[in-house]
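From: lab user (bench 3)
To: helpdesk
Subject: output format question, protein + cobalt (II) ion

Hello, I'm new to running complex predictions and I'm not sure whether the block I got back is the full result or only part of it. Here's what I submitted:
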Amino acid sequence: MRTLSHLFENNRRWSEEIRRRDPHFFETLSKQQAPEYLWIGCSDSRVPANEIVGLLPGELFVHRNVANVVVPTDMNCMSVMQFAVDVLKVKHIMVVGHYGCGGIRAVVEHRQMGLIDHWLRHVKDVYYLHQQELEAIENFEARCDRLCELNVIHQVERVCQSAIVQNAWARGQELSVHGWMYSLKDGLLRDMDVCRTSLADVNPAYRTVQVEALNPQRPDAV
Ligand code: CO
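Helpdesk reply: Thanks, we reran it on our side. This is the complete output you should expect:
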């Protein structure tokens, strides 16, 4: 099959359905996008960003990679973040992991999968930092799930460690960074309660902007 006609048929129906509800939807959207959210999630086909949070085209800026990893030398992810924060001025960045993540499982299994091992090495570092806690969990699935959560928490920190986010906070831009988990089993999101909203939330070792000069009253985060 060279043309995948069934997908074009799906696309035609989808476009018609949206235009039936709002005849000017695409015309209006084509002029500009103004999403309030940047979603950084896993590439897993079972974790479709817009559908999970019920947002339409134009409402969610999206970056996805295997195991939702934020790496400071990844120009793809950093470019997405920079454009989202500096140009689109999104108000929220959510790092969204999911239980049952194959990338995370591969890390827990300590097996080789090829080129992707280099990428998952970033998750391996999270494993190493929490090795004692993780290896105390006897149930394999539970151990994988816990690493999924710890990975999200660490990736939220990575987002906040970037100069992109810190500069936005330093100039007074409203921006929150969230860590969420998605369950493949019931389709529900869970907030990991690690929301970061200011420079004071960044460990001083990772600050590129001095918080003291901005707000001397605020106690440092640890
Ligand atoms: Co995944």
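A quick orientation on your result: The chain is about 45% helix and 15% strand. Let us know if anything else is unclear.
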